[in-house]
Amino acid sequence: MKRTESTPMRAFIKKGARFFLKGALMRASDSVTLDIQAVDVLLMPSHLIEAEEVRTPLQQLYYFVQQMLIAPERKAEWQEGLRACLAAGAGLPDHELLRPALRLVEREKYQSAMAQLRKIMRGEQDPQRSGTEATSRRD
After folding, report:
1. Which residues pair with residue 10 across a beta bridge?
2. What ranges does the record list as Polar residues composition bias (predicted)?
3. 0.85 exceeded by the pTM?
4. What does the pLDDT look like over 78-95, one tens digit per residue?
């Protein structure tokens, strides 16, 4: 989520939830409501996936992109995993559907790529919605 000082955001973080804020992976010890005035990079708990939670090839792609953002010192490792996943191809959506997200990864726009992949994953979960996206939801 990119925000500027003129558009503050309020976020509720549940006890024990992890979130990523400007280079730091954090865990809330208690439930807290945050008023965020300015931030370059913020990933809410619903945007993070643990390695143990990965069940599909698309989630695996998402995980590799997420890790490029969270652990840039291991970027080469995550890129290799991403390439291997794409090369295997089994269980992935049509490459044309993935192309916009992959272009964002090439440009190191990881947070935007993750937003694109979340849209694709939501479409997989609800096939009736594929191709249409609710406009009221913001990533």
Report:
1. 35
2. 128-139
3. no
4. 999 999 988 887 778 777
